[in-house]
């Protein structure tokens, strides 16, 4: 496992205790979040985590729209791994391509957990269609066994982590991206270790959150907004044509 281990049992057991605090903090800080840097109107697609759908990202979507971004969910129902995206990703890639065509510009992908892994793969597969990638608690830089959720992933997705196709998928996600990448991670995460949620080739932002309901945590939303503002000065990727 390349020296990576799953998060400690104490962190795992703390997850259900900490999770309800995130939306409480969000309610407290909602007004202040509206004072974050304004967006540039770019197209942003939000990719949910394992077993979650677009509703899990409602708070993030509402905030980013409030800041001036053009936001859409992925529109593929619950994230059940390869079951949701069409095997090798065809359904997801088609959704991103369609959004880019309608927006007339590449799409910035913000992916939570498994959604972040998928966002990185999409950035490799869709040159000229993805502008930047922001991952939130996404374990892209290590093997599935270095998480506490790999068994749930196998059950929900129907794919085994020792399948060569799954190993190749994980390897592709770990490769340096051809577009700007930001990784938001936490050392307190009880499901996926922070060490495999970032690498030397991306801009890393550390937060003090758990994993469950991470997308409701105000500090995470601030980090996402900061990542989008930081990438605003980056040149658009070359390639592709837009109507």
UniProtKB/TrEMBL annotation:
Domain of life assignment:
Bacteria
Q: Which UniProt keywords apply?
A: Hydrolase
Which SUPFAM superfamilies does the UniProt record give?
alpha/beta-Hydrolases
**Record GO terms (molecular function):** hydrolase activity
Q: Which InterPro entries match?
A: AB_hydrolase_1, AB_hydrolase_fold
Every AB hydrolase-1 domain range: 106-153
Official protein name in the record = Alpha/beta fold hydrolase
| Originating organism | Sphingomonas baiyangensis
């Amino acid at each position: 496992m390349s020296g990576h281990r799953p998060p400690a049992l104490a962190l795992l057991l703390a997850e259900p205790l900490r999770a309800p605090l995130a939306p409480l903090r969000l309610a407290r800080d909602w007004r202040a979040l509206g004072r974050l840097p304004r967006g540039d109107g770019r197209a942003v697609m939000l990719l949910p985590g394992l077993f979650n759908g677009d509703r899990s990202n409602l708070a993030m979507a509402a905030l980013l729209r409030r800041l001036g971004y053009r936001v859409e969910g992925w529109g593929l129902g619950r994230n059940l791994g390869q079951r949701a995206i069409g095997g090798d990703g065809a359904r997801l890639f088609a959704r991103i391509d369609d959004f880019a065509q309608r927006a007339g510009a590449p799409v910035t992908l913000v992916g939570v957990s498994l959604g972040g892994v998928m966002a990185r793969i999409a950035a490799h597969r869709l040159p000229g269609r993805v502008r930047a990638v922001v991952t939130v608690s996404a374990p892209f830089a290590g093997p599935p066994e270095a998480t506490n959720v790999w068994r749930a992933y196998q059950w929900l997705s129907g794919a085994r982590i020792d399948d060569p196709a799954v190993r190749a998928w994980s390897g592709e996600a770990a490769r340096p991206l051809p577009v700007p990448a930001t990784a938001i991670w936490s050392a307190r995460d009880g499901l996926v270790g922070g060490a495999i949620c970032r690498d030397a080739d991306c801009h890393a932002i550390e937060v003090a959150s758990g994993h469950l309901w991470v997308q409701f945590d105000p500090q995470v939303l601030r980090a996402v907004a900061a990542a989008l503002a930081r990438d605003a000065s980056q040149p658009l990727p070359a390639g592709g044509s837009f109507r």
